[in-house]
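Anyone have tokens for Response regulator? Sequence:
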Amino acid sequence: MREPLRVLIADDELLARKRLSRLLAALPDVSVCGEAVDGDSVLAAVRAGGVDVVLLDIHMPGLSGLDAMGLLPEGGPHVIFCTAHAEHAVNAFEHGAVDYVLKPVEAARLQKALERARARLPARVKAPTAAAPAAEKQPLARLPIPTRQGLVLVSPDAISHASLEDELVTVFTAQGDFLTDFTLNELADKLPPEHFHRVHRRALLNLSHVTRLEPLETGGYLARTARGHAVEVSRQSARELRRMLGLRKGAEDEG
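Reply: yep, here.
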């Protein structure tokens, strides 16, 4: 049996909190650990501990949901936004939200978002015994990508990169480009770490497909793939790439 997912409901509207509480009560392995009506009470609840996931509204008194998320401690609970305002979705995902659910929240959509959050949590289980050794997480030999025509099985070697646009991740392969429900973090866990690198908050890159790195004024790169795609590499990731490739440090690497 799985450990209960401890969920904090954060919304200034009583009816919205009641709806979420009712939906959560019907889900297995989920428990409501508290409610908050503004950003300050969210932070106080998180500091008290025992929160795995925050269901967070965007517009609340005082701190907005985005403001509160930015103040959560590193390694703190994952955030799922539950809001009526679709225009903040890109900003939310850029700040690391697990999911963005529009009101009125439906049970199936909420459950899917919670499963995404659960997949990112470290296991709260006892250490394995000799009779039940822990299985090490291994990269997949073939990555299954669901499409309208069925599951497409793709070799990791055929994947050049994956990018997040709006709420969806696209995987770019030699067989074509495919939308997937995987997050970039989930893909990174499933693919060989010696080839795939998170080069931007919105991009995962297979270095074996890169033919050219074009410097940007920001200190990052524009990585060109063999198929002609351009993938932005952040300044911080560019530093890591230079170290990996044994390149001379640039001025931006100093200090």
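The longest strand covers residues 30-36.
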